[in-house]
Specification:
Blueprint (H helix, E strand, L loop, with lengths): L4 H17 L1 H8 L1 H30 L4 H27 L31 H6 L2 H16 L1
């Protein structure tokens, strides 16, 4: 069930008050440890990716039999692919791995971090018929209303 704009605004006000009263508790709720874990996984994925590339290059440069060279090359590719997958999956959704759910009902970090407010879906006519500048003006107007 989605929250209305009024409920989201009230929730954000309560969260701001919580941050002012107890910043340490608010940072615990924010999930900074999950962000750190995701960053570490990205770095580890990058290191594994580099090791796979090194293994692949090593297979090409060494003067080995064709079978050993092929096995080493395939192993390097698999290691490289695993590192890339590890890095990309941790980069996409650091909070989703922790099972966090935002106020909008979607996985990710909460509204404390200033998450996006869920907007109602646009109709096909609005999506295709509105020029770029009108959409930008509408976004600007919504931002100003939210800030007041």
């Amino acid at each position: 069930m989605e929250l209305s704009e009024e409920e989201l605004r009230l929730l954000e006000q309560m969260e701001r008050a919580l941050v002012e009263e107890d910043p340490k508790f608010a940072s615990t709720l924010r999930g900074t440890s999950f962000q750190r874990t995701a960053r570490r996984r990205m770095i580890l994925g990058g290191v594994i990716l580099a090791a796979g590339i090194g293994l692949l290059v090593l297979a090409v440069l060494l003067d080995l039999s064709a079978l050993v060279q092929t096995i080493l090359g395939v192993a390097g590719f698999v290691v490289m692919l695993g590192g890339a997958i590890l890095a990309l999956t941790s980069a996409r959704s650091p909070g989703a791995a922790a099972g966090k759910v935002r106020a909008s009902g979607r996985p990710g970090l909460g509204v404390v971090d200033g998450g996006r407010v869920h907007r109602p879906r646009r109709t096909a006519r609005q999506r295709s018929g509105s020029p770029f500048m009108e959409r930008m003006e509408e976004r600007w107007r919504r931002r100003r209303e939210r800030g007041l």
